[in-house]
Write a structure and sequence with these properties.
With about 475 residues, the protein is mainly α. The chain is about 75% helix and about 0% strand.
Length: about 475
C-alpha cells in the first residue's frame, strides 16, 4: 500500500495548474528519515482502517443482497415470492429507509463518535439479518428488509466520509477501491458460502435458505463486536497514532485542501451545501452506477439459471464475475490516482458496463453472454469508487463532505429502488427492460460527467485568470477533472 501514497506527489491534474498545486499539496521533508516516517505512518493508517472497514462493508453487501441467493435456494417457494411482485417488493422496500436516513446519519456521526455509531449499526442489522431466517411469510420478510435498510443506511456514507478525511485527494480513490474491491471480492464468494450453508437443510428443523440468514447474521453481530475495539475515528479524534503522527496526517490534509480542522455543522451550512447542484449531479452519477451493481447482486443467479444452469451451478458461477470486477476496479483506481483524473475513467467504466449488457442480451452463445456479466459487473463496480472519489475531491470542509457523501450514497439507494423495480418478475430470466434501463443509466451518467467537467474547467479557468478569488472557500483549491 505504501506505493499508492505517491499519487499526489507524482502528478496533480487540476486543469493546467498541476505544478503549483503539487507544490502546495506536497509536504516538504528535510531528509530521508522524514519521508520514511511519513510512509510508515500512512501504512499504519492503511492497515488499521481499510481491512476492517472493507470486511464490514462486504458483510453489509452480502446481508442486503443475499435474498436473491436465498430465493433460488428455496425461500421463493417457501414464502411464495413468485406471486405478483412480492420479490420486487421485498427487494425494493429496503431502499426506502436506506435512502431517507443517509443524511441524518452522517450529520450525527461526529457527535456520536465513529466507533459507537458504526458498532451500533452493524450489531443492529446483524440481529435483523438473523431474524430473517425465522420469517414465516413474505410480510415478515418485508418488515425485516425495511429494518435492514434503517440500520445499514448510516454505514456506507460514514465509511466514505471517514476514509476521505485521512488522505490527500490523489490518494483517495485507491483507498476507496481497496475498501470496495475487497468487499465485492468477498461478496462474490457469498453464493458459494450460501450454497455450503444450504447443506445444513434439516438441521434444527430449518430449511437451507433459513440457515443462510441465521449464520450470516451471527457472523455480522460478531464482527460488530470486534469493530468496537478497532474502528478508526476521524484523524483529529484518533487514538492509535502518536501525537507526531497525528500532526503529520493533519498537515498533509491541510496542505492538500485546507480542511484538516473540522468546521461546525449548522443548519444554514447544510442548506447551503444542499443548494450546490454539483453535489446532486454526483449523486445522480452514483445512482447510475449503483443501479447495475444492485441488479447484478439481486438477479445474477436468476439470469444464470435462465441460461440453463442448475441451482448449484448458478450459485457457483456467480463468483467469477466478482473476482474480475475486483481486479478491474483496482486497475482503474490505480491509473485514476496516478494521472490525477476522474472523469475519463468514469466514462470508460460506463462504456464497459453497456457493452456487457449488450453481450448478455443479444449474443446467442451462453459463454459470451456469461462474459457479458463479467463486463457489466466490472464496469459497474469500478465506477463506485470512481464516482465517490470524483465527488470527494471536489468539496472542502467537513460539513460539506458530510452532506456530499450522504447525498451521493442516498442516491445510490434510489439506484437500488430503480434496479428492483425495472427488473420485473415477468421479465425473468433475461430482464430485457431492466438491461436497457441499465444502459440508459450509463448514458445519463456520461452526460452528467460532461456537464460537471465543463463546469469545473470553467471555474478553474476563472480562478487562474483572477476572475474569482476562491474556489470552495480556498484560494489555492482547484477542482479535479
Amino acid at each position: 500500500m505504501a506505493s499508492s501514497i505517491s499519487g499526489c506527489e507524482k502528478r496533480a491534474s487540476f486543469d493546467g495548474d498541476a505544478e503549483s498545486l503539487t507544490k502546495s499539496s506536497t509536504p516538504k521533508h528535510d531528509n530521508k528519515q522524514a519521508s520514511e516516517f511519513e510512509r510508515k505512518t500512512i501504512r499504519q493508517v492503511d492497515w488499521r482502517m481499510l481491512p476492517l472497514l472493507a470486511l464490514l462493508y462486504a458483510v453489509a453487501l452480502i446481508d442486503r443482497t443475499n435474498t436473491g441467493i436465498a430465493r433460488v435456494a428455496g425461500m421463493g417457494a417457501a414464502l411464495k415470492l413468485s406471486v405478483g411482485e412480492r420479490y420486487s417488493i421485498i427487494s425494493c422496500i429496503y431502499f426506502v429507509p436506506y435512502t431517507l436516513l443517509q443524511l441524518p446519519g452522517n450529520l450525527v456521526l461526529r457527535w456520536v463518535g465513529a466507533r459507537e455509531w458504526v458498532t451500533f449499526l452493524v450489531i443492529s442489522w446483524g440481529a435483523v439479518e438473523l431474524g430473517m431466517g425465522f420469517a414465516q411469510n413474505w410480510h415478515v420478510l418485508a418488515l425485516c428488509r425495511a429494518l435492514l435498510g434503517v440500520f445499514e443506511s448510516g454505514f456506507f456514507p460514514a465509511m466514505v466520509f471517514i476514509i476521505t478525511t485521512w488522505y490527500r485527494r490523489f490518494e483517495v480513490q485507491k483507498r476507496l477501491a481497496i475498501f470496495y474491491l475487497f468487499s465485492i471480492f468477498i461478496g462474490g464468494f457469498s453464493s458459494i458460502f450460501a450454497y455450503v450453508l444450504t447443506l445444513l437443510k434439516g438441521r434444527g428443523g430449518l430449511q437451507g435458505w433459513q440457515w443462510i440468514f441465521i449464520i450470516e447474521g451471527i457472523i455480522t453481530i460478531a464482527l460488530g463486536i470486534i469493530g468496537w475495539f478497532f474502528i478508526v475515528d476521524f484523524p483529529d479524534k484518533n487514538r492509535f497514532l502518536t501525537k507526531e503522527q497525528t500532526e503529520l496526517i493533519l498537515a498533509r490534509v491541510e496542505a492538500d485542501r485546507g480542511d484538516s480542522v473540522p468546521d461546525e455543522v449548522t443548519f444554514r451550512k447544510v442548506v447551503k451545501h444542499l443548494c450546490d447542484w454539483t453535489i446532486w449531479a454526483n449523486g445522480l452519477m452514483f445512482m447510475c452506477t449503483a443501479m447495475p451493481s444492485y441488479a447484478v447482486g439481486y438477479f445474477i443467479t436468476i439470469i444464470l439459471s435462465g441460461m440453463g444452469w442448475g441451482i448449484t451451478d448458478s450459485l457457483l458461477l456467480t463468483a467469477p464475475p466478482y473476482v474480475f470486477a475486483a481486479i478491474i476496479t483496482y486497475i482503474f483506481a490505480h491509473y485514476s490516482d496516478s494521472t490525477g483524473m476522474r472523469a475519463p475513467f468514469i466514462v470508460a467504466q460506463a462504456l464497459l458496463t453497456m457493452l456487457g449488457c449488450l453481450l448478455t442480451l443479444y449474443v446467442s452463445q451462453d459463454g459470451v453472454r456469461y462474459f457479458g456479466l463479467f463486463l457489466t459487473c466490472g464496469g459497474a463496480a469500478a465506477s463506485v469508487p470512481g464516482v465517490l472519489a470524483y465527488g470527494s475531491n471536489n468539496v472542502r470542509e467537513h460539513s460539506k463532505r458530510a452532506v456530499s457523501t450522504a447525498v451521493t450514497v442516498a442516491m445510490g439507494g434510489i439506484g437500488g429502488i430503480f434496479a428492483t423495480t425495472v427488473f420485473r418478475e415477468q421479465d425473468a430470466p433475461m430482464y430485457l427492460p431492466g438491461m436497457w434501463a441499465t444502459i440508459g443509466c450509463q448514458l445519463f451518467m456520461i452526460a452528467l460527467v460532461g456537464c460537471t467537467t465543463f463546469t469545473f474547467m470553467k471555474r478553474n479557468k476563472e480562478r487562474r485568470e483572477g476572475k474569482v478569488e476562491t474556489l470552495e472557500g480556498a484560494s489555492d483549491f482547484y477542482y479535479t477533472l
